[in-house]
Structures are given as structure tokens and as C-alpha cells.
């Protein structure tokens, strides 16, 4: 990356040993078996260009939500779509509640918009209060928010007034069994001022394949399509994604695993002296280090020695070197993390 | 696609039967065996984010050309990189010699540059003559040119004066055994006004995986990186591409196959009454239909009935419905094409 502030978790390539990766928020169930089998059986699909229209996948997504195909646009992960939105609507002013995923800022800078950062307050549970900011052309909102793990937006009715265009990144919404009560997808289909970005990376454990999608009013989809480079979703990604949305078993299994393990991890973290976990409704937990002599950098290093990679949150705007983030993983892995954290804080 | 003019070949998804695809210009040798094996053995790589820096692949490309890593940037096929170049340098005026690959125009329109189309003349072998145009901010040049199949630029010395920024798309340069005498790669490393875009899609038969790269001056690479969405090259693409550049056997086998089959196909096409193939130095041939009652649309339809997909060139600027394009494939497939064309012209 060109700048430290834009460094993310999940970059296992920086290390020369095998690590348990708590830094990327990926479903610990791993690749759905039906997807793995399909990829192995159809590896020759790489011999052909991907369908530039991604017709089959677009249809699957539309059916999954009960919306029209004209309201869906697939892309190379949510990352491509964040840049595409900024590029297409070229806002003059952009509002970004922080701490949050840094690519909103990076994408905004690439279109030279004036950015206003709105600081979410720890004392107010990192909730987003739309009354505290001036109206902007564009608002990027991550809901549930990364790295705070909470729904920062609940009273949906008010949001229409905050910005001319609201880009709601719902990358972690899939982990909520009652996501249908919280997503802005059905409003985005009707209202031209709301665009929802989703990803199949986190919930379906496919970050390496790159698949995301936008749900929006059909006029917005048309505008976005005009600026989009063709073929950005590769053949294998289209194949995999068309299968996974139908895998109901994997979905319910994930709900139950994440809910159980998040509760377990939260309780265990809460019992460790010097750590303060924040309540999360999704698959990762933000943790504050409340010991003077230890910061997020030194703790991350200590855990690395034990083959554990956590997310050092020091480079998030409006956080500092007292914050780390950990994904919710399997019981065995979570226990390993807990043991390592206890040692890391006392050694 | 949003507009017919931007429709490409290779879209096998529009048809519900198995076709021999002469419309996409892909190496008929297919997936290099070493790549197929690696993909099957490492399918679990999709579980992790791709390396955002693509360090290993960038290093392989740099070593392949004997240049520094700082001069290389990988992307999601050449398509992402064409849009990235237009977006990063935001030219006021852009020159595009036509007929050519339509994405230069589409990318240019997305940044609202003023486009000047320079018509390449059939009577002058579709050669590009820089003296016939005014200087522009940006020039897109496809060399060898798609769909004409020739090197439209040879006298390299003069090109510096045509535009402030020359984007040379060398997607088909790999098929020239003497490509080192024609590529602008070594000039691009030194000169800030030249950027070369390459792809691993065509020569290495990987269009479904999406891998391209830019070679440019390190200051240009820095600027481009700042605007690029992260993780656009997926994990499997990075793995495959890191292997193929070392596969010398596949490379020499391709040279010999393409050279032999291109000569064969050209001679056979030339013997068909009513067809005029244009000399090509790469892996496809542009063909003019010289029969009054048959156009490219009707011929394409007739071949489809025989399970053959060719590229109808009617939507290329500065061509019309008398042109088709066909990739050079294996002897068996080329014979099938010849037989079908003969029938298609007379039936």
C-alpha cells in the first residue's frame, strides 16, 4: 500500500510462517464443500472469458433478495464497487464516520472530494448520530461497522436527510440472522439516494476469489455500469457465488457457530485483566488494551510469536495504539487466542 | 454491455450450445499443465485475501523482463488497467486510431475526455501515421492492433511527439517470437510519457482468471497505485501467473503452433472466393467479405449453426458489416472453420 493508514488485516503474505488469522474477518467454517467441489470440477472455466454481464450470478442474487436483476451489479469484491461509486457520482463533499474501513477515505481521495470525518464516540457506543453533522454530497457508512462491530445506524428513517447519496457498506450484515430487519437493500431498490454494497467474501469465506455486489435503483445501476471495467468478476468467482447463496445448511450452521463462539470469546476476553472487549453483533470483536505498558503493536508482535495474527487497530482514524480487533473463529482457535493474549499481557 | 459498440468476442454465455470459439483470441494450447495442476492443488487459497501488493507475481514479471519491481503494477486483466490509466491521468484530449479495441473509447468516455478518432486506412495496410494528427494529451495504441493483426507502430523514435502520455496496449505482443524488438517496455521504464499494458490472458490462455500488468516509470506506477482498488488480482490468478512466465516449453510450443497454423489458415482463407484475409503477425486474422449478398451478421449466424463462433466486426469504428475476425486455433479446428466458411458463403 502507498500509505500506512490504508494497511488492512489479512495480509498473511508478510509473514513466512503459518498463522491462525484473526486479522481478517472470514467465516471460520471455511470453503463451503459444494463450492470446493465445483471449483475442482470446473477449473477449465479459466480458459474462457467470464460472462461480462454475470447473468447467472446476478440472477441468483436477485432471487436471493426477491428483487429485480436490474437492481444488482456484481464486482471484484466490495473494494472495486466502493471506488466505482466514488468515481461515478464524484461528490464534492463526503462524510465518513470514523473509525471505519479505510478504503472509503482512499477512494474518496482518488476523486478529490472534500472529506469530513465524523468521530464516533466510545462513550456513546460508537453510534452514528446524523444530527451532529452538516449535509454532504456523499456519506459512506459501514453497517455493522468495521472495526467497532456494532450497528452504527438503526433509526433508518432519518438517514435520507444526511447526504444526497448514501453508500451503505453492509459487508458484515450477513452474519446477523435478522439482517432483513436492518439492511437498506429494499430501500436502495426504490430510493435513488441509497446504494448498498455487499460482499460474498466474509460470510462465505471466499476473500481470495473476489466477489461483491451493489443493490441500487436501476437508474443508479445504469450509471455505475457505464464506468465499470468489463470482466472484473472472474469465471471461478461467478461459478462459486452462484452456488453458495443456495447453501442454506452452511448459512444456518454459520449463524449458530458465530453466535455461540462470539459469546464465548467475549466472556473470556472480558475476564482477562487489562482487556476490554466491545459488544459485537457480527463476527469480530474490537478490544481495548487497558494496560499502560502494552500497546497494540507490542501485543501483536507477541502474538505473532505464537503463530497468531490479530489486527493492530493503531492505523484506524479515531482509534489509537490501544486497540486491537479479533475475528470470531472456532472454539479451538479462540481458546488458543485467549491463552496467547493472557500470556502476551503478562510476560 | 450498455452499448452495442462495446460488445466483444468471447461471450460464449450468450449461446446455449458448445461452440468452438474463434471470437476470443486465446492460445489454443489451453491451460499450461503446470498451471492446472497448481490450481487444483491449491484451491484453498481462495480462503485468504490475495496479497494486495502481489509481491511474488510482481517479482516474476520484473525478472522476466529484467526490470525493477518498482516499474510493474499488476491488475485485473488489461481492462482494469486501461480504466486506471484514463482515471489517473485524466487527459483533456485523447487520440484513438481506429479500428481498435473498443475499451479505450469506453474508458475515455468515463473520464469525459475529448476523443479524436484517427482512421487507419485499409489501402495503407491499417498503419498508424503519427504525422496525420494533432498532438493530444493521451494516445491509446494497440500494438499489434486488434482487430487488424498488424504492428501499426514500427518507427518507435517518432512516437514521443504524438502525445503527452502514450498508453501502448501490447496484449498480443507475446505471440511475436521477436517481441523484444518491438515492445515499448524498456522505453516505458525510462520515459514518463509511455505506459505499456500487457496481459497474461491471451498467450497463456487464462482469460477467466483476469491478470494483466503495467510497465511504466516508477513515478507513474506510484500515481497509478494511489487510485487502484486493492486486491483486484485474485489469489488463484496470482498463483497461476507466477508459474506460467517460467514455462519456457509452453512458450516455444505456442510460437511454433501459431506460426504454422496462421500461415495455413491465411493460405486457406485466401483461396476461398469472396474472402480476403489481411496479413497478421499475431494469433488472429481480420477477414473482409467480398460478396455483395453476404454480410458479417449473416455469415456469423450461419457459422453458429455449425457450432462455430467468429467475431462479427460490424461494431468496430471504421469497419463495417463486411468484416469478421477469427483466432488461429489448432489444425483440426482451423479445418472446421474453413469448411464452414466455404459452405456459409455459398449456401
Structure, described:
The structure is a homodimer. Chain A has about 350 residues and is an alpha/beta fold. Chain A has ten helices and 13 strands. The first copy, chain A, has helices at about 35-40, 55-65, 75-90, 105-110, 185-190, 220-225, 235-245, 250-270, 295-305, 330-345, and strands spanning about 20, 70-75, 95-100, 115-120, 135-140, 165-170, 195-200, 210-215, 275, 285-290, 310, 310, 325. Chain A has a seven-stranded mixed beta sheet with strand order 2-8-7-6-5-3-4, sandwiched between helices. Chain A has a four-stranded antiparallel beta sheet with strand order 9-10-13-12. In chain A, helix 1 runs antiparallel to helix 7, helix 2 (about 55-65) packs parallel to helix 7 and helix 8 (about 250-270) packs parallel to helix 10. The radius of gyration of chain A is 20 Å and the shape is globular. Chain A starts with 19 loop residues before the first strand and ends with a helix. The mean pLDDT of chain A is about 95. Chains A and B meet through helix 1, helix 3, helix 4, helix 6 and helix 7 of A and helix 1, helix 3, helix 4, helix 6 and helix 7 of B.
Amino acid at each position: 500500500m502507498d500509505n500506512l493508514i490504508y494497511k488492512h488485516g489479512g495480509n498473511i503474505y508478510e509473514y513466512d510462517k503459518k498463522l491462525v488469522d484473526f486479522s481478517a474477518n472470514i467465516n471460520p467454517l471455511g470453503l463451503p464443500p459444494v463450492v470446493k467441489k465445483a471449483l475442482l470440477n470446473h477449473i477449465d472455466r479459466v480458459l474462457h472469458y467470464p460472462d461480462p454481464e454475470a447473468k447467472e450470478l446476478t440472477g441468483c442474487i436477485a432471487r436471493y433478495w426477491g428483487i429485480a436483476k436490474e437492481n444488482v451489479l456484481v464486482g471484484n469484491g466490495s473494494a472495486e464497487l466502493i471506488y466505482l461509486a466514488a468515481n461515478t457520482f464524484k461528490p464534492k463533499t463526503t462524510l465518513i464516520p470514523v473509525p471505519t474501513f479505510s478504503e472509503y477515505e482512499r477512494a474518496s481521495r482518488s476523486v478529490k472530494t472534500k472529506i469530513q470525518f465524523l468521530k464516533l464516540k466510545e462513550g456513546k457506543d460508537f453510534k452514528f448520530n446524523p444530527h451532529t453533522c452538516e449535509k454532504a454530497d456523499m456519506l459512506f457508512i459501514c453497517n455493522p461497522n468495521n472495526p467497532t462491530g456494532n450497528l452504527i445506524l438503526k433509526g433508518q428513517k432519518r438517514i435520507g436527510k444526511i447526504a444526497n447519496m448514501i453508500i451503505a457498506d453492509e459487508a458484515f450484515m450477513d452474519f446477523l440472522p435478522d439482517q432483513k430487519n436492518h439492511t437498506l437493500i429494499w430501500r436502495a431498490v426504490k430510493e435513488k439516494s441509497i446504494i448498498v454494497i455487499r460482499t460474498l467474501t466474509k460470510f462465505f469465506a471466499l476473500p481470495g476469489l473476489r466477489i461483491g455486489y451493489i443493490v441500487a435503483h436501476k437508474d443508479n445501476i445504469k450509471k455505475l455500469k457505464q464506468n465499470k471495467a468489463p470482466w472484473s468478476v472472474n469465471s471461478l468467482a461467478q461459478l462459486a457465488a452462484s452456488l453458495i447463496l443456495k447453501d442454506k445448511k452452511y448459512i444456518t450452521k454459520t449463524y449458530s457457530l458465530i453466535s455461540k463462539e462470539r459469546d464465548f470469546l467475549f466472556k473470556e476476553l472480558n475476564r482477562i485483566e487489562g482487556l476490554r472487549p466491545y459488544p459485537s453483533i457480527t463476527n469480530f470483536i474490537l478490544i481495548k488494551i487497558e494496560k499502560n505498558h502494552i500497546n497494540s503493536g507490542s501485543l501483536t508482535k507477541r502474538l505473532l510469536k505464537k503463530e497468531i495474527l490479530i489486527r493492530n487497530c493503531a492505523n484506524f482514524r479515531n482509534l489509537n495504539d490501544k486497540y486491537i480487533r479479533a475475528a470470531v473463529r472456532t472454539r479451538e482457535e479462540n481458546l488458543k487466542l485467549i491463552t496467547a493474549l493472557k500470556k502476551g499481557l503478562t510476560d
